[in-house]
Amino acid sequence: MKRFTCDELVKLLTAYLEDALGQTEREGVRAHLASCGGCERHLEQFRATIGALADPPPEKLPADLRDRLMSAFRERHRS
């Protein structure tokens, strides 16, 4: 199982939440989250943000708006 740094994990959160990771990566993310309170809090904040924007559900948002939001999340964590 790959061990992720916090920076690597943050870059994978969107794929993790979209269930777009392979089993090995997913297990690595779960192991990191189990041992890193900071990243676990970050994930919960990310989920809360998604939940707040989920009215309407993300799949019912206009595609361009959904894409802009996801790009903003990814870009924020690159800096």
List the defining traits of the structure above:
mainly alpha, transcription regulation, Znf_put, transcription, Anti-sigma factor family protein, 72% helix, 79 residues
Can you walk me through this structure?
With about 80 residues, this protein is an all-alpha fold. About 70% of the residues lie in helices and about 0% in strands. The longest helix is centred in the middle third of the chain and has 16 residues, at about 35-50. It has helices at about 5-15, 25-35, 35-50, 65-79. Helix 1 packs parallel to helix 3 (about 35-50), helix 1 runs antiparallel to helix 4 and helix 2 (about 25-35) packs across helix 3. The termini are far apart. The protein is elongated. It is built from 4 helices and no strands. It has one domain. Keywords: Transcription, Transcription regulation. It holds the Pfam family zf-HC2. This is Anti-sigma factor family protein.
Topology (SSEs and partners):
Elements lengths: L5 H12 L5 H13 L1 H16 L10 H16 L1
Helix pairs in contact: 1-3, 1-4, 2-3
